[in-house]
Amino acid sequence: MILVSGGLGSIGSHTARALLDLGESVVVTAHRSSGMPEFLAGEPGIVVEPLDTTDREAVLGIGGRHEITGIVHLAAAPHDLPDPIEYLRADVSGLLNVLEAAREWGVRRFAVASTIAAYAAVDEVPWREDAALPVVAPHQIPVFKRTAELFAALAGDSAGFETVSLRIGTIWGPLGLPDNPFFALPRLLSAAVRGEDADLTPPRPPAYAEDATDLCYVKDCGRAIALLMVAEHLNHRIYNVSSGRLVRYGEVVDAINAAVPGADIVLPQGRNPDRPTDNYLDITRLREDTAFRPAYDVERAVPDYVDWLRKHPR
Predict the structure, then answer these.
(1) pLDDT, tens digit (0-9, with 9 covering 90-100), for 245-272
(2) How many domains does the chain have?
(3) Which residues constitute the domain of residue 205?
(4) Which of the chain's termini has less CB crowding within 10 Å, N or C?
């Protein structure tokens, strides 16, 4: 069985779905999330374990109830914890406990979530996994994620299990944050579906028609992670996980207006003058080692997400 920590979150639940589709059995852990998405409910190959990953004994206890052969570690402290020390303490504690469990259980492969923000201050276009990363601390999330890559590699090399760092791009889709603090597109879409004005006043991030991001639908993200977990052989220990292309905000808004009659979203023309240079993740490694290809372009992703939002509170 493959353990997915944080497995009822947006990326976690879609990773679990993709693993089931590939014939794997899955244990998902849940801490803040409690409801099982309907696309997982009733599946015979999935088990839910309530878990706070900072509880070492609870983490290790899972191995007494299930035969875990691989781990996808996605669980994380709330992104908006105001105290960076509290945030780091929670995430480091959780990571170390799950790494200890990986060692005890003798897993084959351990994947840990990293982030596109690991490339902060890298000028190379596109961003490739072998880029030299400057030592910067722009936010508590990329600070932890970059060190998590090293923690996992060190522990895996010592204990003899394979580690994979997942540098995940800009993800959106079902179960994601509708009022995302890092980019405006989920807010624009959720407001359109609910017939509301999309309030983008600070501290919400702004949106201009020519702004662009490496946008990846969560179903594609989950499938990419699942493919990395089941691949017979991987040639690298770091993989970019995303669509591998820039998507203009204007392109997304056109799709929203087409999918939601009456939305009539109009973005300011041009590009946000305060926005860093737009960049995207090179996914050559992911494609070559897993044959992954994104299935959801903007024209397919937006109607799918609209349908989800119309049926669910978020």
Answers:
(1) 999 999 999 999 999 999 999 999 999 9
(2) 2
(3) 174-213+245-279+290-311
(4) C
